[in-house]
């Protein structure tokens, strides 16, 4: 099983859109995928809720209970039949997680331990090939838990000025996590999102990215595509909502690129 | 003096762009404006740094010291001659503010007290007509400090599905703040940002906004305009970078609308 943390502390760069549509793209390739919504806004849960506006299934069993109440992972897992994958929903309670875990010893390692304790049995507890973590726009305890638990880090990045600026700070944090909490953590790559090839700005930012992060840049590019912004209001992934769109094609390409990278090793 | 908190826990909706360009629009109308950067990414400081990439002036005197080290406000204020206003920069240290203030009694009222302690003398300590707070994409201790200290709340909102979803949560928090911390807090309004009138989605979201938040919707609309995304890489407001652009016109209109609302009272 391989886990991928999807992180960028800059807001609105395409983290949730990537978690939802990469997850479902991997499921379309026949992989068994679990999505973990670690954001108090629960956008990932809404994105794939089937009914616009209803979170996955609200209630007591979310990633908050997993981290704070030591709920076993299998109690939070819900099957999303229409998208062919599984998910643990987020919760508004996550907004108070910093205080809730302030006194927890080794608090950044809670998620890692919860995942280690999960023993798939192929029936009640399905085995997964991939787990994706959708994170909030910050480098607080939730993103740190995801970095400490993950095998890989995927960094969605909007091709605009502020997104580029935050990369240095993110890389600093990654190095500390690799040293102290998770030596196995590997940076899978940087994914340019919402790329609008008509603007000069996007081209300039990609040139900057190639200069500073050459080896990290994935080949995939997610083009700006209004269908990607519409899909969440129908509670569907792009592959269900608009399978012929650029958005669906770009995320399928990303899925294949990641499988080629991670399964060829 | 009137203070305006610019808040939306959804990421990437235009908070920093609004703080920078509304602030400078008010300065162009002859008002004395102070900007407070409460975000650990310090995007507001970068946006108006004059030199692309250099934060306002990095160093020990930021909003972190104001909140945690009881630094007097006047020690953090820097003059931005080219934009005709004053600003207190942000700092990466703000990322650790939740823990730093975990044991502080009445921690959400720290900013209010720091502003109350400031006594303008017209020379060393300028008097301000407006103070704008740029906040991170969360409803944690920084945004709560801004809500507790502010006279008004301005909510930038991207005309997309996830932005609409977060409004209910934000309004819940506002009601608690009004009851417990700041009965004077008034919602100035919701500001549609990055409006792309070509897409059906934007129209649908505005219709939803009008249905749910009719009285709160400002008349101003900030259209999608690539000049607004380019300006930060030159360290300038839109009014300096591209004064003839739609972006500059929309923020000047917003400035006039807010002055008419707040100064007619
Ligand atoms: N390639 C794209 N083309 C068009 N719209 C997109 C694209 N990717 C994402 N969006 C839209 O842009 C907005 C921001 O995306 P998203 O919510 O996935 O970002 P995020 O990084 O998860 O935000 P947050 O920081 O708040 O968690 C959403 O409204 C989404 O529908
Ligand atoms: N009206 C607009 N037209 C085009 N681009 C815009 C507009 N407003 C903002 N942008 C760009 O969109 C991105 C997000 O805006 P901004 O950083 O101001 O949002 P934010 O809410 O402050 O984000 P965060 O949640 O990370 O603090 C930036 O790259 C900005 O330059
Ligand atoms: Mg998100
Ligand atoms: Mg911002």
**Strands side by side in the biggest sheet of chain A:** 3-4-2-5-1-6-7
Mean of all residue-level pLDDT scores of chain A: 93
Instruction: Count every beta strand of chain A, where a strand is a DSSP E run of 2 or more residues.
Output: 7
The arrangement of helices and strands of chain A along the chain is EHEHHEEHHEHEHEHHHH
Shape, principal axes of CA atoms of chain A: globular
Structural class designation of chain A: alpha/beta
How many strands, which pairing sense, and closed or not: the largest β-sheet of chain A?
7 strands, mixed
- Give the N-to-C terminal Cα separation of chain A: 13 Å
Question: How does this structure look, described?
Answer:
The structure is a homodimer of 265-residue chains. Chain A is α/β, with parallel strands linked by helices and 265 residues long. Helices cover 40% and strands 14% of the residues of chain A. In chain A, helix 7 links the parallel strand 6 (152-158) and strand 7. In chain A, helix 1 (15-28) crosses helix 11 and helix 5 packs across helix 6. The A-B interface holds A 9-13, 16, 40-41, 43, 46, 52-53, 92, 95, 98-99, 102, 136-140, 158, 160-162, 165-166, 169, 199-201, 204, 226, 229-230, 232-233 and B 9-13, 16, 40-41, 43, 46, 52-53, 92, 95, 98-99, 102, 136-140, 158, 160-162, 165-166, 169, 199-201, 204, 226, 229-230, 232-233. The structure holds adenosine-5'-triphosphate (2 copies) and magnesium ion (MG) (2 copies). Residues 15-16, 39, 43 of chain A line the site of one magnesium ion. One magnesium ion (MG) binds at residues 15-16, 39, 43 of chain A.
């Amino acid at each position: 099983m391989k886990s991928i943390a999807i992180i960028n502390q800059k807001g609105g760069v395409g983290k949730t859109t990537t978690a939802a549509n990469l997850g479902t793209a991997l499921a379309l390739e026949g992989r068994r995928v679990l999505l973990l919504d670690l954001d108090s806004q629960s956008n990932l849960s809404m994105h794939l809720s089937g009914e616009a506006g209803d979170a996955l299934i609200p209630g007591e069993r979310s990633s908050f209970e997993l981290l704070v109440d030591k709920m076993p992972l299998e109690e939070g897992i819900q099957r999303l039949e229409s998208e062919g994958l599984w998910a643990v929903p987020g919760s508004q309670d996550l907004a108070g997680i910093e205080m809730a875990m302030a006194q927890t010893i080794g608090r950044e390692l809670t998620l890692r331990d919860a995942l280690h304790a999960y023993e798939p049995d192929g029936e009640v507890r399905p085995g997964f090939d991939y787990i994706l973590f959708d994170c909030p726009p910050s480098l607080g305890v939730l993103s740190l838990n995801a970095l400490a638990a993950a095998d890989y880090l995927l960094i969605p990045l909007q091709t605009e000025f502020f997104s580029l600026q935050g990369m240095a700070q993110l890389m600093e944090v990654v190095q500390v996590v690799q040293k102290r909490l998770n030596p196995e953590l590997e940076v899978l790559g940087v994914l340019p999102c919402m790329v609008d090839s008509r603007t000069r700005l996007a081209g300039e930012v990609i040139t900057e990215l190639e200069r500073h992060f050459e080896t990290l840049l994935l080949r995939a590019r997610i083009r700006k595509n209004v269908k990607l912004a519409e899909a969440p209001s129908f509670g569907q992934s792009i592959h269900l909502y608009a399978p012929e769109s650029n958005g669906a094609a770009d995320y399928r390409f990303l899925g294949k690129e990641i499988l080629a990278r991670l399964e060829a090793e």
